[in-house]
Amino acid sequence: MTYSIRILMVGCLLALHPLVARPHRADYVVVGVGTAGATVAKKLSDDKKTSVIALHSGKNLTSDPWISFAANATTTVPFAIVGPPLYENGMTTPQPNADDRTLEWAIAKPLGGATSINAGVWGRGTDQYYREWEKIAGPKWGPKRALKIYKQLEHYHGQTKDPWARGYHGPLSILQDRHPSKVSRVFTKAMIQSTGFPFVLDYNDPKTPIGVSSQLQYTHSGQDGIYRVTSATAFLNDSVMTPSGYGVHGRKLRVLFRSKALKTIWKGKKAIGVKYKHGGKEYKVYANKAVIVCAGLRSSTFLMHSGIGDKKLLKSLNIPVVFDNPNVGKHLSDQPAVRLVFTSSVNDFGANPNGLFSQIAWLPAPHGDKKIRKVRLATITQLPAITLLTLDLCQPKSRGFITINSPNPAAPPVINLGVLSNNSDLELFQKSLQIYIKNLNTTLQKSNPGYQLVFPDPAILDDPALVTAFIRANVSSNEHFQGHCKMAPLHKGGVVNSKGHVYGADKGSLIVGDNSVVPKPMDGSPMATGYFAGANIAEMLIEDK
Asked: Does residue 122 sit within a domain?
């Protein structure tokens, strides 16, 4: 068979593909193929009857060694120098409660979004958190539903005292560290002694959400977890689609790469499609059933450019107003952090080969409700004799906002994180430093003199004014952005209802299905919550058929 005939045959086969013959229309159009978007696209197209077109502004870098072998997030750093850029990034507005500093924000660009470049830590939310969500949005967001979805997602490789609470046949490989380093064990023991909270074998067991663990759980696979598991490898692998984005085995799926979603196409107030840009040209793609927005940090700005937002802002930018909702972009929250430095024994050094973090503790507020996660302590031991400790807030009360200042949908968003704008967050940082960290440092020095806090100077921990100054000068963003398309009743600040349907769009024609819908800050990791949000929205659409 000649080369020209083979090319002709391939072309004919592609022409018969259900989304090549009519690539401008599908049942669902998904905006963004990150953590949630990949999950949604795969689940909706599983029946081989439902068609999905997904728009992704970045590339498919899944098979690139810098991604697939980047089990440890730090190994992706050289990729930013030698390979394609991994992020769209920028700076927030000056933060008045953080010494007027600007903080970095970033949006992951590869297929799979943040799951392709993050630390890979798997941290579900707690039953307490999902009960709060259930009060706002009903039982399909409650703890029973969350457990059902997580068990469907997980393929757990690790220890637990409650096997019933874990999933063992799902697409996401969850690997538990098998060989914690001696530094990790030293910090684990010291945290248990200094905080009074127990060792936790499986912190994702709903029965043990509070405690200290030396064994993190990561979305990795392979011998010793050398392969990164992302939403792309779990949901859009070669059994689902080709590397160029065509569904296989009869699946009616098409992922369009380097395709920047610009705005919704409307028929009255019904969302019927999306205008997008590819290669400098604008195109349109139409949805028979719904447009599903999973664009992460850009979900709220996509709505604004589509005409859903504060009408005064939209009119000032000459954007036609479809529905006046000033809640869009509001209620932005993060999981702010301060980072500390301890010395550690060089003889105990052993970098974690599976991930960035060495061990973790999920704790309540000092002297607070002992059943509610409020603080997370996690150590990093990638350098001999140095241990970094991240202290972050799991459920902060401060809120910021996302907005736009240009009618151009490609313009960067304007982001104000509102860091420490609620004084209770500052107080929680203060108490955590003066109680948890001070006691941890004292315990370490008594049992292991080579371990001690060196940044900040432990002497400041006895001076509230100096502790406050340290927090304001060093608080940073974890880039765990959430809540800016809040799921709640419209009169209570909502952007979407309990099914993710955007207020102001007819008949569920426009849906948001990612971390931007969470009604309150999550108390787990954003990756796990993002998978849950996407999977749950898709599940509800399937149930409603």
From this structure: no
